[in-house]
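Step 1: inspect the first sequence and its tokens.
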Amino acid sequence: MRMLITVVLVSLLLIGCRTTANTDTIKSKIIEGTTTQAEVKAFMGEPGVMSRTSAGDEVWTYESQSRKASFVLVVEFDSNGVVKSYTYRSCRF
């Protein structure tokens, strides 16, 4: 049982590491009004959370945290699947 818990925790950490990106990379890859859902998914992978706004726009959230840093990216898409807006926050401890 202890081994199973260890394997699950390590897997979650590795998944979280995939979504780590720096500010310059995000700015160059995600362009409002241009970048598509497919392009965001190719760059960032599957989002951790997918939701919708009250207007029906899809919102993807990516989060990653380690002992040294945390990262959150929230991307809102229009009805055509193109980035409408995004916000991100990165913190080093």
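Step 2: inspect the second sequence and its tokens, then contrast the two.
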Amino acid sequence: MRPTRVQETRSCSTTIAPGRFNAWGSFAAVYFPVTGINGQSLLGIQVFIQDLFYGGALIIAVALSSLVHRTERRERDIAKEAD
């Protein structure tokens, strides 16, 4: 018996899957920037560099997410063409 769409969504909510909420992704999204900023504060780096760090982290996260999404879409399209 195939699970319903709701059951599939619930079972994926704690796995790392691009485009879906997951607890580990949320943890990483908070942990790494905060750790980087705290490290920079301990080193005495100026505040505007910390803002640049946040901006760079955001740009990298969006770029990686877009790359993964595009790759998955391309693989899905290739699989459809093969069928």
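Step 3: confirm your contrast with the notes below.
Residues 5-12+21-82 form one domain. The chain has one domain: 5-12+21-82.
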